Amino acid sequence: MKKILLAGESWTSVTTHIKGFDIFTTSRYEEGGDRLIKALKNGGYEVDFCPNHYAGEHFPDTVEKLRGYDAVFLSDIGSNTLLLSDRVFSYGDTQNNKCTAIRDYVLAGGALCMIGGYLSFSGIDARARYGKTAVADVLPVKILPYDDRCEHPEGVFPTVSNDTHPLMQGINEEWPCFLGYNKTVARCLPACKTIAKIDGDPFISVGSFGMGKSAAFTSDCSPHWASPDFMSWKYYDTFWCNLADWLTK
Predict the structure, then answer these.
(1) Where do the Putative glutamine amidotransferase domain residues begin and end (predicted)?
(2) How far apart are CA 168 and CA 162, in angstroms?
(3) Which of 75, 112, 172, 221 is most buried (CB neighbours < 10 A)?
């Protein structure tokens, strides 16, 4: 059984409650990858989930460790989380660069998918900052150097420009709307292709780098950018399994 590492898709919310004279806070931990994980498992994949608060210390930091997976999915996890472990940030020690390890893993035959979100590609206030990391070398899109979010509360619909690509196999209707995405620029290399666009920008792109492959899905796999129509779409599982199949073939 092929194995996928999904990193990111978790957060902790802290709420301040003010009730007259009194004030107190509450916190809540949440995860957003359940639907994606279910889709991949339904397609026969084993999935290891590495949430954001765990990734800083435990995301694989060498090519050898990453080779335990057929593909790595990064979804809403900023590069700081990968680069600044406690060992580095709190104690000033050195550690292997996880972003460099991801690039070298792809070049050596591994597979990578980046899924959009507030901490993907460039991200909110440019805080994801993957354009300044080695991961950018093996993505099929160019990352902008500023806040790349395109918010569309009115909904925006992707258009498929290459319906014969294996990623579109078995998908026989138009895509549901999305509420936003990360704006990127198509990479003009023979091995890179834009499969679908959203509002004229890359929506789904794929590429080959060295001996490996990568893909960019510039919107989200979960709310809020992923609309309820997408989350309940009958082709949700089909698409993600097609993508995993292409990456790991």
Answers:
(1) 3-248
(2) 8
(3) 221
Q: Is 41 within 8 Å of 84 (Cβ atoms)?
A: no
The residue with tokens 């889709």 is 39
Residue pLDDT, tens place only, 65-122: 999 999 999 999 999 999 998 889 989 999 999 999 999 999 999 999 999 999 999 9
Q: 236-248 and 34-42 helices cross at what angle (nearest 10)?
A: 70
Count Cβ atoms below 10 Å from residue 127 Cβ, excluding itself: 13
Please name the residue that has the structure tokens 């995301």: 59
Token reading at 86: 């406690």
173: DSSP letter? S
Query: Where is 231: in which H helix or E strand?
Result: helix 228-231
Q: What is the pLDDT of residues 150-160, one digit of tens each?
A: 999 999 999 99
The verdict on pTM exceeding 0.90 is: yes
Distance CA 116, CA 72 (A): 14
